[in-house]
Design brief:
Structural class: alpha/beta
Strand content: 25-35%
Shape: globular
Order of helices and strands: EEEHEEEEHEHEHEHEHEHEHEHE
Largest sheet: 7 strands, mixed
Bound molecules: NADP nicotinamide-adenine-dinucleotide phosphate
Helix content: 25-40%
Number of strands: 15
Number of helices: 9
Mean pLDDT: 97
Amino acid sequence: MAETNRQLQIAELPTDKLSAQHFTMAEAPVPSPGEGEVLARTLLLSLDPANRAWMQGATYRAALNAGQVMAGFTLGRVIESNHSDFAPGDLVEGDGGWQDYFCLPGKRLNKRAPREPLTHLMSALGVTGNTAYYGMAGIGKPQSGETVVVSAAGGATGSVAGQIAKLAGARVVGVAGGPEKCARVVDELGFDDCIDYREANLFPALKEACPNGVDIYFDNVGGTTLEAALFRMNLHGRIICCGVVSQYDTANPSPGPRGVPGLLVTKRLTMQGFLVGDDPALVEEGQQKLSQWVDDGSLTVIEDVVEGLENAPAGLVGLLAGENFGKRMVRVSD
Ligand SMILES: NC(=O)c1ccc[n+]([C@@H]2O[C@H](COP(=O)([O-])OP(=O)(O)OC[C@H]3O[C@@H](n4cnc5c(N)ncnc54)[C@H](OP(=O)(O)O)[C@@H]3O)[C@@H](O)[C@H]2O)c1
């Protein structure tokens, strides 16, 4: 075991676009677990758009501040345990932060069964896979023949959400940034179509791609994309509010969308937000289904692994700029 724990701390909170300069590398002693605590070596660190949202102020967690270790979801291997549920060698996940080692109370950790490759525990079988299942299968409930639109379609959550709708027999249209990513969404993930929101005017583009209107819109981005989808929704359509990545990395989030509440009323739409932890039974159901689909090859898993803790800041900045195809994570150690 190393003697020091490298930690990426927040040097300064961003007031507009995030850059790698908002973080600084520090070193601290490797902590010793106290009563009921567990020490783990970080293997994988999840990079999430929410990391940036947490820097804007309080969300579903307390606001982050300058000087603290950057928060992040981690998968680690237990080194030392003072909790009866965990033993050295176990795989655990939790809110470990951007550091080589994390020490948390056992009650804040979740044990994971080993899996090959391990990265699947952070992608299709991790938080974003669970989120996709929760929103699409649990809330949207796509039916055969329906039209489903998914934004951030080449991302961790969107890629899985769209495939779940395809497995239910829906026609699935993605929205993503850039021609190359859109082509991969269709060719590699099996979406029926994908609109490049950076090039297209989304209002006519959605009309053309969804001639029968939209029954479900899985919203990862908010802003203009949500507004354009609202205008294409069919009667009794469902809008699943998963996240608003277009609003996280800016000092000037776009107002709107227009059409709320008028279009909700006239089209009798349901618009529902959720957090993936809301219903553990649904997550458990999702884990079973997702594992089965990954194992039998009906779900394509796409991942984007950044090597080395020191590259986490640039990795997060790149994620917010749409560099990734699939779940972006950092391999902190083997
Ligand atoms: N509700 C929950 O419990 C829950 C849990 C996890 C995640 N989420 C949410 O799910 C969404 C997706 O998260 P993820 O972890 O799967 O990330 P991701 O989709 O893998 O990565 C983020 C993607 O967002 C897109 N993006 C960035 N800026 C954008 C903009 N201004 N307009 C449109 N698209 C933009 C980029 O793709 P392009 O190249 O297409 O621009 C980027 O690749 C986020 O909103 C996140 O907050 C919610």
